[in-house]
């Protein structure tokens, strides 16, 4: 049998072989013959990795990270730097100059030669393609600086102490290499002692590159030679000690303070201004010995101190005096004798002097009345010397306040300064309170309207009315006695048109038969009693006095007898002023005779000038005026008052009554103000419109309620309430 042609049933795939039957195991199932091999695991892993990669590609974002300088030098192109980028991410896929990363935060390190490393955190969002730019700071530069001095006889080969700075920040000493110079365009400044400061505008490349730079310096100093004729004198310049004289120094241009010092000598300070290139030989100095210190006090304090006749202040005081020199000290205080002392002190020596001043007194004689008055000097009472009106006291030559008082008298005080020029007598004559009151009242004064007001202190008794035997007497001139106890002021002149128009500017006194009564200097007429009284109140208000007349709805309704405001004369006051001389009572303005003195002008009444104007005139009398005259045109009466005997009749304060102010019991009435009520007011005195002799009598009483062409007024007031 050929072995090669016989089919090998064992190895041929197409041959079939019967298998032995094995029954299933009890309670089990049939078992598969296929098993999972390593090939299958490898295939599954590869499929899983491929799936994850596909997912990564689906969710990854493409980013690009570039670097640029944080500042560009002048002329430098804005190019992206060639940077080494290290992205710190657990899952990234570099593709060229980009990375595929998942969204989120990723750290990045960027490195470029010549720049500081940059570190940053990138936040990758859902954008498909993203760009990130990192700014890098240039490394500082290095400068190799040389200094050149301008050609000059003052130029030096070596310049010491020069410094390079940017914006006053010192970078280092030059000449030489200066490192860590900030990159960029900067103003570089070199400042060297004794040379003018110089600056350059220069671009520093940075990135640790070395650049060459040169500065040309200009000398800015002058040579100063210092000397002294004394040894051991030290010199300080701008508070820095530089050595002992003599010496020659180079000083930088500008202002300098020079100080020369030496122990036990007084320092000397000079201020100089150095100009570059101008050498100076300073004049030799000589220091003065150091001053001595003296402290001066006195008892009492406050004395004036004079040193060699020069005022230096008040004690206590500390003074510097020139040492090794004799000084004359003088102390003066008012009321004390002059104190003197001479002294000489060593340099820097201190001394204390206390002067005990001696009082300087002068004999002063006091003359005091009453003799038992209490005398006090500067608030200290002296012992009362009973019955002694003069005493001599030794008083210091200071201001003295002397007060003298006594019960029932007004205290007097005088300030004096006793003097040695001559004997001094100081007199005190105390006044009772009443005497003091009268002494304080002025005898006359000008009121707000310009009137001169005369004071009458003690008028006394007044005889009112007229005797039954008096020719021309009227029944309303009953006789009674009145007493004027109150001092009062009265105007020397009747109120003028000018004065009244200050109160009522529109008032006009008019004219009488074409003769004007309205001139400013004429007495005001055609005013009612009410208007005259209101004028008085107006004048009181101007002088801040309490008005005498009380008013209601603009009309006078009463009066206040305690007021010292302006008012009209009472009838009793007018009678006393017009008719009572020092020893007698007059009937007419010129006296008691019915015949007036020929050729004399006693006042302005109806006279020959008014013959064609007035029915009754005083025959043969010519006063020179047809109607009114300027107030004060005639002589004053014995009491210094004008126009009581003519010009215009005058309103008085009193209500008119046939009995006047006569009391029913026949007693003397004191300070009468007339009846309490009436219809008319009393008018007193002659006028330019009256020439009938009985009407010229001073006892004649007229009455009316309205103003008239020949009735005016004058003001009066009590001297005190």
Describe this structure in words.
This protein is mainly beta. It has 6 domains: 71-136, no CATH class; 141-217, Immunoglobulin-like (Sandwich), CATH 2.60.40.4130; 221-281, no CATH class; 292-356, Immunoglobulin-like (Sandwich), CATH 2.60.40.10; 361-436, Immunoglobulin-like; 441-721, paralog of FGE (formylglycine-generating enzyme), CATH 3.90.1580. The protein is built from 5 helices and 51 strands. A 5-stranded antiparallel β-sheet has the order 36-37-40-51-45. It has a 4-stranded mixed β-sheet with strand order 3-4-1-7. The protein is elongated. Residues 1-16 have low confidence and may be disordered.
Observed structural traits:
5 helices; mainly beta; 51 strands; 37% strand; four-stranded mixed beta sheet; five-stranded antiparallel beta sheet; 721 residues
What would a concise description of this structure say?
With 721 residues, the protein is mostly beta strands. The chain is built from five helices and 51 strands. The chain folds into six domains: 66 residues, no CATH class; 77 residues, Immunoglobulin-like, CATH 2.60.40.4130; 61 residues, no CATH class; 65 residues, Sandwich (Immunoglobulin-like), CATH 2.60.40.10; 76 residues, Immunoglobulin-like (Sandwich); 281 residues, paralog of FGE (formylglycine-generating enzyme) (Alpha-Beta Complex), CATH 3.90.1580.
